[in-house]
Amino acid sequence: MPKGFSVRPSRVGDLVREFAQFGSLPAGGVSRLCASPTDGEARDRLTKLLQDVGAEVTVDAVGNQFGLFRLTDDDTLAPVMIGSHLDSQPRAGKIDGTLGVMAAVEVGQLLHAAKQQGHGFQRNFYVVNWTNEEGARFRPSLLGSGVFAGHLTEAFALACRDDDGVTLEDALLAIGYRGTDPRPPIPDFYMELHAEQGSRLEGAGLQIGLVTRNWGAAKLDLVFEGEQAHTGPTPMSKRRDALLAASRVIDGLRQLADANPDRLHTSVGRIVVSPNSSNVVPDRVELTAEIRSPDDTFLIEIEKLAQAQFDAVAQATGVTLHRQNRSLRLARTMPETMVDFLEGCSTSLGQQPMRLDTVAGHDALSLIGICPTALVFVPSIGGISHNEAEATDDADMDAGTSLLLEAAFRLCGSSHTTWGMT
C-alpha cells in the first residue's frame, strides 16, 4: 500500500452510527428487516454514499446492491469484492453486517483516491450489500449471496414469503430495489469484515481474527397442528395442544446440545402461535429449529435423531406435524492460501491475528468454492450479538478495515490469480 493512504480514524464507526438511524430503536439498536421501508432508506443512503465517492451503483434481480470503483479500463481480470449486509434482526444491534458494508465503502473510496493520484491497478473493486443475509423476514438466510453464487435460483428467492405472505419480489418492488441490472462477474477474491459475535478475541486482547472454517447448520421449518379449545373446562387428556408439542421440541433440542456442548448448538429462534390468546389452547404453532455443528457427520446424525423426536412428540401430544422447509449448510474450510495471505498482510501492519472458527453464518460462506474467500473478525465487546447492546470499539473497526485496505491494494494491483502477493 502506498504511503499516504490509510483508514481515517473512526470513519467506519461514524458511518455505522449514521446508518443506525434507519430503523433505530430506543435502546440504541436497529430493526431493519430485509426489504422493509427502513431497509429501503438505508439502501438509498448507501447508493448516495457510493456515488458521492466515485462508484457506479447497480442492483440485480434479487436486490443485491453493488458499487463499482473503476480502477482500470481493462476488464480482462476479474474484480476484487468486499461487502456484507444492511438487513437486521427484528431487535438487533447496529454493528452486525453494517460494519462490513461501511468498511468496504471506506476501502473503495481510498482505492479510488489512489487511482486519481496516479497509482496503477489491474483489477476493479466492488462494494456489495447482500440481500436477506439474516433470514429474519424471508427464509432461508443468505438468499442474495446464495443466488449470486449459483446455489439458489432467482425465481426461488423472489418467491420466498414472509409470515404475512408477502413475497421477496413484492417487497423489493415496494422499496424500489427489484433490480434489472446484470450481476457483476464472479470476483477473483471476496473478503468480508464482521464483528466476532463471540468473546475469543476480546479475551486474548487481540484485534484481528481470521476465520478458518464454519460450522454446519441444519434449519427446519415445522408446523404443529392441533385443536383449539378452552383452557378451563377442556380435560387435559382431551387436549391436542400445538404449543405443548412445540415446547417439548424446544426442550428436546436443548437437551441434545447440553449432552454435546463442544460440538453442538441447537435452538428455536422463531415461533408463531395461533391463536395467541389467553383462555385458548393453540391449534397451530410454526417454529424454526436450528442445529449447528463443526462435524458434518455428527450434524446429520443429530438431525435424524431430532426428526425422530419431532415425530414422537407429535404422536404423544395428539397433534399433526408438517415439515415445510429444510436448509442444510455443511461445514467447510476457508481457502488456506487466503488465510495465509491475510495473515501476512496483518503481520505487515503490526497486527497479531488469531485463527478461529465461525459458528454463525455469513455471506462469505456462500462464496466458498466459487472464488477465493476470506472472513475477518474484530472483537465484539462482551461477545454480545443480535442484541441492541452489541458494540465494537472504533479502534477495532479501524484495525479490521486497515487489514482489508492493505489486502485490497495488493489484490487490485496484482495480475496474478494464484495470489501473487509479493
From TrEMBL:
The keyword Zinc applies. Residues 216-313 form the Peptidase M20 dimerisation domain. One of its GO terms (molecular function) is hydrolase activity, acting on carbon-nitrogen (but not peptide) bonds, in linear amidines. Zn(2+) 2 binds at residues 96, 134, 386. SUPFAM superfamilies: Bacterial exopeptidase dimerisation domain, Zn-dependent exopeptidases. Binds 2 Zn(2+) ions per subunit. The keyword S-adenosyl-L-methionine does not apply. Zn(2+) 1 binds at residues 85, 96, 194. Keywords: Hydrolase, Metal-binding, Zinc. Pfam families: M20_dimer, Peptidase_M20. This is Peptidase M20 dimerisation domain-containing protein. It comes from Rhizobium oryziradicis.
